[in-house]
Amino acid sequence: MSAFLLCFAAWSAIALGMDRHHEDALGQEGSMRRLVALRRSGWLLLVLSLWLAAAHPPGGVPASLGVTAWSVALSVAAVAVTATVTWQPRRTPELAGAALLAGLLARALGW
Amino acid sequence: MTTATSTVRKSADREGFRQAMSWLHTWAGLILGWLLFAIFLTGTLSFFKNEFNLWMRPEMHGLPRTDAADAQVAQKSVDALVRKAPDVTQWILHLPDDRDPAVNMLWRGTGNGRFETLRMNPQTGEPIEARQTMGGDFFYRFHFELRTAQKGRWTIQGRWVVGVATMLMFVALITGVITHRRIFKDFFTFRPTKGGQRAWLDAHNVSGVLVLPFYLMITFSGLMIFHTLYMPAGIAANYKNEKGVDSNAYFADLQGEKPESRPRRGAGDKVEPLPAIALQPIIDAATTRWQGGRIGSVQARRDANGRAVVEVTRHEGDRLQYRPPRLLFDATTGQWLDQADATSPAVKTYGVLYGLHMARFADVGLRWALFGFGVLGSLMIATGMVLWSVKRSAKSQTQASRQGAAKTTSNITSNAPAAHPKAPFGERLVAGINIATLAGLPLACGVYLAANRLIPVGIEGRADAELAWFFSAWGITLLWALACAVARPHRLGWTVPLAAAGLVWAALPLINALTTHTHLGVSLPAREWVWASMDLSFLATGLLLGWLAWRVRPGRVPRRGAPAKNARPAPSVPVAPAETSTSGA
Predict the structure, then answer these.
(1) Shortest Cα distance from A21 to chain B (angstroms)?
(2) Residues B49 and B81 in one domain
(3) How far apart are CA B448 and CA B148, in angstroms?
């Protein structure tokens, strides 16, 4: 669960770091720097969530199952972000922020 | 050769390579796409094999969730079995778990050596007389060996066909990444409102790339599972004995066993019946050894030396690697003998691939996610097939309008209707088989489930009768599709089978309510979520198919940019030039 939320936030950041989606979501073109920063933070967040899944898998399952569940969450989150930028582009930033917070919270609760 | 020409040649080579990959992707996809769609969809349904097995045997409804210890359940079931068949020589007992409330017992006696199946009430050990059906096992068997009857026939041939298709799926995936090179740039891009070819291409790309790791994994592991069938040469070269190939030794290695402890029994071999076995101390010892890990199944048999042994297998959901560890005990003394488990890196890798494919580790959430991936994969294949048609008709349309423009004759006939009335025979044939597969298979699956409720219980050959309904429904759709797409192209070709499929699926909960006591009126108040969610999912599937049928109905005026179904995009569809559309996305 926390893996999904963190991946969602990460993919959103990567999507917002792309020209087309940045414009769709925020109504203006982002500066090159901003786009790069968004993309980098997205990738970082992905790596972080993978590390969390591998090093501290939730629910006390073996690391192999944690990583498997993470890779499933990765794809589910990618589908979810695609759906968001397609049908609710304006909401993308808020949803990403909410997912990030919820993900960290879920992580803290050990989900 | 100057550097300038060499760079030109290099880029030309690269283009040529991509063209070649594109060609391969298109034709590998087209030739086996229909089969792959069927394999993918039935395989996806197999993620819920146990749940289908349960739903299709309503007699299993109401089994109590037992709190009794594994040892008690096992002992009671085995005692009941021995009372029924005192000459039992081998039994394999699957304990009830979250997904299956009954005890499943496979056993054979001194007779013909064939295994028989028995489902038992875990509390009492009484056998449950369930209707004859293949249940979810049909989807499962169909997806890897194209099973057409309850008793296996042509299964090896079926596995070979599936193997070839899987190999081409793998080829199509890899060439697809090369062909649609923009998928990573357009990672999140889906523009359904753009309509026409663009929307289909987006749908194909998005459903392809987002879940790509899953497709690669499921395809590759699917191939690897049957490596002993597809690639026997390596085994033949390395496992030899005086009689030729020692496949027994290979399988022993594969499963981490000693060759001599593997049960071997020819049809005519005489085997002594098993002695009475006290299971409690054995299961207790196994639980201690695994530190509370779940026990999946227990087996008793005679080994090659005639000694009665008990094998306790850990639950498959406890780890990723397939083929869980097994503990071997002496049946008479209860003494621990051995632990069988694959440890070599190669076999472990194989086990992990196998485990990933089977997804026995997945809990409810993960299982639904994987199911969703399977559905997306089926959609990827389906959109690819439709895209082939859409692209071709778009091409002939632009050619026609170009010709029209070149001639500058304002001839009305040369303008709009280029795609129809008569597309080339090949295109019409593809469109027809598209209908038969993409709409026909969902219809056939729905009919199969309905047959499970409608065919009288207790008739001879009931399981095969259900399959007959399945294949008849599919066959009729094929005839319909050939009539409506090849002989006389008509837009009803898609609508009718989709609507029929929607109706059948949506009616399933109703049929269930009329024929059993496991319907929503019972399962919802009792909070039996497995039963209830089956019915609700059927209803949702029906609504979805009905919505699709509604979208493609003939009278519908295509909005500007509405997705055009089949080989007939709306005339207003913006059409990309053919060259860029093959290599550009």
Answers:
(1) 8
(2) no
(3) 13
CB-based contact A62 B320, cutoff 8 Å: yes
Q: How many domains does chain B have?
A: 2
The tokens of B458 are what?
Answer: 């207790």
| DSSP letter, residue B127 | B
Residue B104 belongs to some domain of the structure: yes
- Residue B127 has phi, psi (to 5 degrees) of -70, 145
Q: Which of A22, A72, A81, A92 to mutate to test the interface with B (most CBs of B within 10 A)?
A: A72
Same domain, B370 and B443: yes
State how far Cα B335 lies from the chain centre.
41
A106 touches chain B (CB under 8 A): no
pLDDT-derived band of residue B43, with 50, 70 and 90 as boundaries? Answer: very high
The A residues from 30 to 89 touching B (CB cutoff 8 Å) are 62, 64-65, 68-69, 71-76, 78-79, 81-82, 85-86
CA–CA dist B24, B332 (Å, integer): 61
Per residue in A36-90, pLDDT (tens digit) is: 899 899 999 999 989 988 887 777 677 888 888 899 999 999 999 998 888 888 8
Which amino acid, one-letter code, is at B487?
Answer: A
* CA–CA dist B12, A11 (Å, integer): 35
The interface pTM score, or ipTM, of the predicted complex is: 0.86
Q: Are B548 and B506 in contact (CB under 8 A)?
A: no
Same domain, B397 and B487: yes
The DSSP string of B563-584 is: PPPTT---TT-----HHHHHH-
How many domains, in total, are found in chain A? 1
Residues B38 and B68 in one domain: no
Q: Could B210 and A71 be called an inter-chain contact, meaning their C-beta atoms sit closer than 8 Å?
A: no
Nearest-5° Cα angle at B458, B452 to B462: 50
B389 and B513 assigned to the same domain: yes
Domain that holds residue B472: 12-53+155-210+363-403+421-551
H/E stretch holding B328: strand B326-330
CB–CB of A18 and B188 under 8 A? Answer: yes
User: Are B284 and B384 contained in the same domain?
Assistant: no
* Angle between the N-to-C axes of helices B212-225 and B155-179, in degrees from 0 to 180, rounded to the nearest 10: 150
pLDDT digits (tens, 9 = 90+) for B168-211: 999 999 998 888 877 887 888 888 777 778 888 888 888 888 89
Whether B324 and B384 map to the same domain: the answer is: no
The length of chain A is 111
Residue appearing with tokens 């039963």: B531
Answer whether A18 sits within 8 Å of B376, measured CB to CB. Answer: no
- Is residue B318, in this structure, part of any structural domain at all? yes
Same-domain pairing of B185 and B333: no
- The answer to whether position B241 is within a domain reads no
Residue B459 pLDDT greater than 70, yes or no: yes
Confidence of residue B560 (pLDDT cuts 50, 70, 90): very low
Residue B132 placed within a domain: no
Size (chain B), residues = 585
The predicted model scores a pTM of 0.84
Q: List chain A residues with CB under 8 Å of B211.
A: 75, 78-79
- CB of B575 within 8 A of CB of B197? yes
Please say whether the beta carbons of B337 and B307 come within 8 A: no
Using CA atoms, how far apart are residues B364 and B367, in angstroms rounded to an integer?
5
Q: Is the pLDDT of residue B97 over 80?
A: yes
